Amino acid sequence: MKPTDIKNPDYFHKVVDCQWACPAHTPVPEYIRLIAHGRYSDAYMINWKSNVFPGILGRTCDRPCEPACRRSRVEDETLVNGKKEPVAICRLKRVAHDYKDDDILDRMPKAPAKNGKRIACVGGGPASLTVARDLAVLGYEIVIYDQDPQLGGFIRTQIPHFRLPESVIDEEVGYITGIGNIAFVHKKVDSLKALLSEDFDAIFVGCGAPRGRELDVPGRTEAAANIHIGIDWLSSVSFGHTTKVGKRVIVLGGGNTAMDCCRTARRLGGEDVKVIVRSGFEEMKASPWEKEDAMGEDIPILNFLVPKEVTHNDGQITGVLFEKVKAEYDAKGRRNLVPTGEPDQHFPCDDVLVAIGQENAFPWIEADAGIEFDRWGLPKLDESTLQSSQPKVFFGGDAAFGPKNIIWAAAHGHDAAISIHKMLLGEDLTERPAPGMNIVSQKMGIHEWSYDNDPTIDHRFKVPHRAKQEALKDIMAEVELGFDPQLAFKEAQRCLNCDVQTVFTGSLCIECDACVDICPMDCITFTENGEEKDLRHRLMAPAVNPTQDLYIGNDLKTGRVMVKDEDVCLHCGLCAERCPTGAWDMRKYYIEMTHAEQACRTH
Amino acid sequence: MTYITKPKLHHPSLVKNKAGYTRRDYEGAVSTLCAGCGHDSISAAIIQACYELDILPHQMAKLSGIGCSSKAPTYFVGASHGFNTVHGRMPSVMTGANLANRDLIYMGVSGDGDSASIGLGQFAHIMRRGVNMTYIVMNNGVYGLTKGQFSATADKGSISKKGQANSDESIDLVSLAILMGATFVARSFSGDKHQLVPLIKAAMSHKGAAFLDVISPCVAFNNHAGSTKSYDYVREHNEALNRIDVIESREEITTQYDPGTLTTVQQHDGSILRLRKLGEDYDPSDKIAAMKRVQEGLAAGEVVTGLLYLDAAPKDLHHHLNTVEAPLNTLGTSDLCPGSATLDRINAGLR
Predict the structure, then answer these.
(1) Considering CB atoms only, which of A447, A512, A520 is closest to B6?
(2) Between chains, do B191 and A447 touch, taking CB under 8 Å as contact?
(3) A5-15 residues labelled b (16+ CB within 10 A) or e (exposed)
(4) What CA–CA distance (Å, rounded) separates B197 from B226?
(5) Rounded to an integer, what distance in angstroms lies between the CA atom of residue A287 and that of residue A358?
(6) All domains of chain A, ordered by start, with CATH?
(7) With an 8 Å Cβ cutoff, are B38 and A512 in contact?
(8) Most B CBs within 10 Å: which of A510, A539, A575, as the mutation test of the B interface?
(9) What values do phi and psi take at B259, rounded to 5?
(10) Looking at the complex, does the CB of residue A217 fall below 8 Å from at least one CB of chain B?
(11) Do B2 and A581 touch (CB under 8 A)?
């Protein structure tokens, strides 16, 4: 194998699994260390720069970082009761929000003098707000349009307040609008052409995926009064238009919206609430922790049941009839749900909530507005610039590639802001800015490091919840209470500091094997070079995870190579501590994505 | 030294041996030796060997004298018995322990100062008595604890860190051990675990006096140009005569070797050593040839390594003395004090 090029910013970025997995590439270990130090405001600002909504995401993020977390690969089953778990990254983010100083506003940027250019954002959700923030600080004048009376988009309308209090939304939307140069217009945009004819230099479309998928079974129209589309129903609850639901409720669908629907129903009078899904329990789209929370509120989840008919009597719903299915996989591994032949099952109910998916809809974009769509009804976009076939129009969030989540919306917002800024400066949009990288050796004394290099063996700490009886009584009462500083410290200590990298300099190495002998994970080997496939199996311990790189160091006197399997490294620094010549060093790679503010340097 | 203890977390693929332990279970405390010390590599090799041999830690005893090397037993097989003796007197304590309980596996760890200077007399006598043990000298050619004076194994003419040449003749412990009657004699290098681990395993399986001279560079005081015990020097001058594999029984040989390059030796405990010749024709069972080859190497400035001498059917101290087989601590009062009638009979036999 070729020696590893550690100058490539992606190499060590990939080793920081959480940051690499995060669409916005938030420098996770850095802010977790700051939380451990009690520097909540600093931790908050790292998040705020990177993902814009730390308080909101700290409660609601889909957390792609957590399944990626190295901790869940290296824990010892016997020490954690058989369950290897990642660091509670998401809930630590919330700690930064909850315990930051009151004067955080002083750290927020202010808009400079206007640069004379105007940007329209369609939709007031996370993608548009990110574009607004990134461009307002550069002097752009931003106008955000939304059909709802307040900014926030689906963060405000569809996430129940018992998961995300409205005060948090108000606060974090306020930090953005507080920058200045951002105007909010409460108006539904019904024509792109009209908007294009206005005096805007660029238009960003962040209108989400606003249409809930319909249930198409007999009885749907007859019992329509008691069948509700999940996202519309949640929005109606959010604005206080819906305050009650029947005692017996069936929620159709297995995603996070279904989980929000069933838990909301429990708070509006639903006593017998069930979630019924077509797929198996394991394949449900909902995050595991959301399923857990739902089941914790006495909501059973029944699987492999396909709705066949809504039963009704005199226009009054009586229940839903389901066909029992099982999963079969064809030669290509595709899943088919086939009837088991068992008798159909009927579940009586008073209300049905349909949360079986969301679709994009752009009824306001005229066919001749210059926007091309693909066969799934999504705009044709350049994946990195997010520019549509109409050069002035950019898409982001759920409106771009279909329903995703808040953190993807923020990432898209950053990308679109860079594109818009570059376009208006006359630069090449396709040249994307490299991330910023700040490298600092952590060596302080002979065996002292400026990070806490001793890994704990603690099991993941649970976030305290409000007592169930109390939580179910009040739809506004936040269920999760968040970590307190003591718990947050303990959980933060579980982080392995994967951004503190093991950097190897072969020309200094005397091949004494001290690093090989001390490494608790057996991840360092000195051996003859070879092809990757072959090398992976003749190391101190086999490197069986092909998604994780082998670090190859050369320049050794014997002509061998140093091979390090990044997969299971604890970043404990013992290799560097036992190295007599400084061939190993622990260096912190602070990698920060470049946003519009720094992306375009004309000088 | 290292401030944190080695994390308990370990590689997910770590497997248990027949004794029910992982390799990590054979570790000891974190080393307080200098970073890069060859002794730590030897400790790691001992850990690997004990793991592969399915050793029960409580059936092993580690003994050592004084010096950097003699600290090392703290850093491996933490759950075994240990005795840190007076300087140079480890062999007599080990002889006594072995006489009292022959069931334990004995490992003596010593250094060039402990064995070739203050303890040279003891070293010679434990070899000639044939105590069943593995005696490892971690040999770096300097007194590390007193900041790098030449030890008795430093080669004549080698240069100290301060630039002085050694004017004294060196003591070659390998030659001495063969001469004194050790029945398993090998030399290896801390920087070559592929050679070292099987040699330790073979020595531990040997039912007699097994001696291992392991060149172990002192990174702090003897790893410079002009030293003959540095990583670079040993790598450049290493003449490995053979490679050995230790196997429990006569498994089928799966790897193909050129005819005449493989010798199989069965040891007294049933373990089998497969010797792969490297280059020259060398027969480790010929004591006189072994002494000749080692001396030739010395004269040529080579570091001759590998299994240098082996008597596959050794007789140990207990055999010579015709001692009771049971460990002394298992003998009951009637065995230890058989009564006046027996005493009378013994006395009568002496008249």
Answers:
(1) A520
(2) no
(3) ebeeeebbbbb
(4) 28
(5) 17
(6) 108-210+360-425 (3.50.50.60), 212-355 (3.50.50.60)
(7) yes
(8) A510
(9) -60, 140
(10) no
(11) no
Q: In this predicted model, what pLDDT tens digit does every residue of B225-252 receive, in sequence order?
A: 999 999 999 999 999 999 888 877 655 5
Residue B69 per-residue DSSP state: H
Residues linked to residue A311 through DSSP beta bridges, in sequence order: A319
Question: Which residues have C-beta within 8 Å of that of residue A371, sequence separation ≥ 6?
Answer: A192, A362, A365, A379, A388, A389, A390, A393
A378 CB burial (10 A radius; 0-12, 13-18, 19+) = middle
C-alpha separations of A470 from A110, A289, A296, A297 in Å: 42, 20, 14, 11
Residues of A in contact with B26 (CB under 8 A): none
How does pLDDT run across B174-192, given as a tens digit for each residue?
Answer: 999 999 999 999 999 999 9
> Could you tell me if A528 lies within 8 Å of chain B, comparing CB atoms?
no
Task: Using only the alpha carbons of chain B, give its radius of gyration.
Answer: 21
Q: Coil, helix or strand for A483?
A: coil
Q: Would you call A512 an interface residue with chain B, using a CB distance cutoff of 8 Å?
A: yes
Residue holding tokens 């493989």? Answer: B262
Measured in whole angstroms, the distance separating CA B237 from the mean position of its chain's CA atoms is 22
Nearest Cα to A497, choosing from A38, A29, A31?
A29
Ordered alpha helix ranges (H), A113-165 = 126-136, 154-157
**In this complex, is the C-beta atom of A458 within 8 Å of any C-beta atom belonging to chain B?**
no
CA distance A525 to chain B (A): 12
Computed on alpha carbons and rounded to an integer, the radius of gyration of chain A in Å comes to 26
Cα separation, A168 vs A231, in Å, equals 21
Residues of chain A by 3-state class (helix, strand, coil), percent to 5: 35, 20, 50
Predicted local confidence at residue A177, as pLDDT: 97
User: Which residues of B are less than 8 Å from A574 in CB distance?
Assistant: 2, 4, 6
**Sequence-ordered list of residues with C-beta below 8 angstroms from that of A22, at least 6 positions apart, any chain:** A28, A51, A64, A65, A407
Distances in whole angstroms, Cα of residue A477 to Cα of each of A53, A187, A266, A334: 21, 31, 13, 42
Q: Is A195 helix (H, G, I), strand (E, B) or coil?
A: helix
Of B6, B231, B232, the CB nearest to A574: B6
Rounded to a whole number of angstroms, the distance from the CA of A346 to the nearest CA of chain B is 47
In Å, how far is B315's CA from the nearest CA of chain A? 36
The tens digit of pLDDT for each residue in A521-559 reads 999 999 999 999 999 999 999 999 999 999 999 999 999
Q: Which of A514, A542, A581 sits opposite B40 (nearest CB)?
A: A514
The amino acid at A433: P
Q: Longest Cα pair distance anywhere in chain B, in angstroms?
A: 71
Q: Is any Cβ of chain B less than 8 angstroms from the Cβ of A579?
A: yes
**Which residues from chain B sit within 8 angstroms of residue A568, using beta carbons?**
11-12
Closest CA to A14 of A58, A53, A70, A56: A70
Greatest extent of chain A over all pairs of C-alpha atoms, in Å: 89
pLDDT in tens, B15-46: 999 999 999 999 999 999 999 999 999 999 99
Contact status of A568 with chain B (Cβ, < 8 Å): yes
Interface A-B, measured as beta-carbon pairs within 8 A, has a size of: 101
Domains of chain B: 23-321 (3.40.50.970)
The verdict on pTM exceeding 0.95 is no
- Inspect the interface and report whether the beta carbons of A512 and B10 lie closer than 8 Å: no
Which residue reads 């460990």 in tokens?
A: B327
Q: Does A497 touch chain B (CB under 8 A)?
A: no
Contact by Cβ (8 Å): A539, A563: yes
- pLDDT class of A567 with cuts at 50, 70, 90: very high
The CA distance from A139 to B217, in Å, is: 65
